[in-house]
Amino acid sequence: MARVTAGVFTSHVPAIGAAIDQGRTTQPYWAPLFEGYEPSRQWARENPADVILLVYNDHATVFTLDVVPTFAIGTAARFEPADEGWGARPVPVVHGHPELASHIVQSVIGEDFDLTVVNRMAVDHGLTVPLSLMFGQPDAWPCPVIPVAVNVLQYPVPSGRRCLALGQAIGRAIASFPADLRVQVWGTGGMSHQLQGPRAGLINREFDQAFLDRITVDPAAAAAIDHVEYVREAGSEAIELIMWLIARGAMPARPSGQSPRCVHRFYHVPASNTAVGHLILMP
Questions:
Q1: Beta carbons of 186 and 247 less than 8 angstroms apart
Q2: Which of 97, 129, 231, 244 is deepest in the core (most CB within 10 A)?
Q3: In this structure, what DSSP letter does residue 122 have?
Q4: Cβ contact 176:105 at 8 Å
Q5: Between 258 and 136, whose confidence is greater?
């Protein structure tokens, strides 16, 4: 059977993608950030996945205010990098895994979660920047990727509890897939940041570090954070952190409620005007 072998959690700041694409990763401003991901790139080489299920949010690239699915899953065989207004990133096409994606759809909808099934979509920086951080600039991504898009742009957005429960349902779906696949589930977005208004540039290190602690050892406590607390303490765009809960929920429970093994933890400010957080957890 398929199995979840790791949870990977990372911010997906678009300026990080621009720094990679423009060869600025060794500049003094950017070098500390990319050095923090070097252990992760080494880990990725030593712990390859057969499939990555990557949870992210579309930034009004595919889903405009005309259509706003709360949860959507890409079931296509390929996903082109999106043009977000300044040309598509020069990164490889993302190849999907229609068989596993369709199985997840069948299983999760069977558990009464309503997923929007998307058979054709482009993928923006929310998905491609995490791949670049973990894999660099390859000619092709090392494995298929299943995109799971979450609405965090237009209220109402899902609660943390709903995201954690969806992740648990996805974990059960993966575990019931009749093929020997190593599946990594990635949660992306955040951490504290606000892009507009009088509080633009807000970063709350204390909140971010507490969230990294909670999602590792007590995901239910992380899921209990409500929308108002995210906005008040960490800025309007910090709501993206609910997507980490889907990935955390998909990880298999350990005996006696033990926490997963933290392989790597990294925190850096700022990247553009965003706090960058990163975790790799293994069951």
A1: yes
A2: 244
A3: -
A4: no
A5: 136
The two counts, helices (H) then strands (E), for the chain are: 10, 10
pLDDT digits (tens, 9 = 90+) for 88-127: 999 999 999 999 999 999 999 999 999 999 999 999 999 9
Q: Is residue 227 pLDDT above 90, yes or no?
A: yes
Q: How far apart are CA 220 and CA 177, in angstroms?
A: 26
In what order do the strands lie in the sheet containing 274-282?
A: 116-118, 71-74, 145-150, 51-56, 182-188, 3-10, 274-282, 261-271
- Across-strand partners of 55? 148, 187
Q: Whose CA is closest to 95, among 46, 144, 152?
A: 144
Phi, psi at 168, each rounded to 5°: -65, -40
Assign 3-state DSSP to the chain and report helix, strand, coil percentages, each to 5.
40, 20, 40
Residue 178 corresponds to which tokens in the numbers above?
């009749």
Express each pLDDT in 16-59 by its tens digit. 999 999 999 999 999 999 999 999 999 999 999 999 999 999 99
Taking the domain 3-188+247-253, which CATH number applies?
3.40.830.10
Predicted pLDDT of residue 255: 78
Identify the pLDDT of residue 260.
95
Q: What are phi and psi of 52, to 5 degrees?
A: -115, 130
Q: Catalytic residue positions?
A: 125, 193
Q: What is the per-residue burial (b if ≥16 Cβ within 10 Å, else e) of 13-37?
A: bbbbbbbbbeeebeeeebeebbebb
CA 212, 215, 218, 220 dihedral sign is positive
In the chain, alpha helices (H): 14-21, 31-36, 38-46, 98-110, 125-135, 160-175, 205-217, 219-223, 227-234, 242-250
Neighbours of 73 (CB within 10 A): 23
Domain boundaries, the chain: 3-188+247-253
Q: Would the pTM of this model clear 0.90, i.e. be above it?
A: yes
